[in-house]
Amino acid sequence: MLCTSSFQAIHIPYATKKQLAVHVKRIASLVPDLYVADVDIALSELCKDDQKLEQILLGREFHISLGRTVPIQVHQIDSIVAMLREKLQSQRGYWIEFNKWDVFVNDDLTRTFLSLEVTGGGLQQISRQIQIVDEVYRLHGLPEFYKNPRPHISLVWALGDISDTLKTAVSDLGRSQNRPQKHIFMCKFSGIECKIGKKSFNICRDRGQ
């Protein structure tokens, strides 16, 4: 079985969707054969219809990973969930700022992702949550997260390692913007869930909700 720990329901604000759609279309014009993350639809097809592009690419829920996707034993499930709840139950609300376009490649170099990274507000809180998940994983003999976590959400992907090509396109996008932005968009922390197989376990909610 697989276990992933992630934020619940990060929604991109409506006012931001049109702006992001324009940027993604610009990227698509520079880099061929891109696909929408999770739904695996060709980006070139969506770019023909702005409404579909916004709806399918940006209208879904996004999640920030707090732990690796790892195989776990059935008998470990209750212990992992209980320990995560105990250690994460006191989480308070905070704002998450997505400040930077960046490129990530998976461990086996089979896919490259265009993502929005958290480098400002919320980074400290997310990093602490990753440390807590690591503690729980370690106690259950599971692999910890990457040494230098870079919290992000992925929008599109391509086959193989095309990181250089995508980074060039991102740089071109940055040069085309009239002025630097403090952040691309913001959303509020809502809670944490742990997905194991087909089940989702609520770990905590923002106490302000």
UniProtKB/TrEMBL annotation:
Top-level division of the source organism's lineage: Eukaryota
Hydrolase found in the keyword field: yes
One GO molecular-function entry: 3'-5'-RNA exonuclease activity
GO biological process, one term: U6 snRNA 3'-end processing
Pfam families reported for this sequence: HVSL
Keywords: Hydrolase, Lyase, Nuclease, Nucleus
Keyword Nucleus: yes
PANTHER family the UniProt entry points to: U6 SNRNA PHOSPHODIESTERASE 1
Protein's UniProt name: U6 snRNA phosphodiesterase 1
Species the sequence originates in: Iris pallida (Sweet iris)
Biological classification of the source: Eukaryota, Viridiplantae, Streptophyta, Embryophyta, Tracheophyta
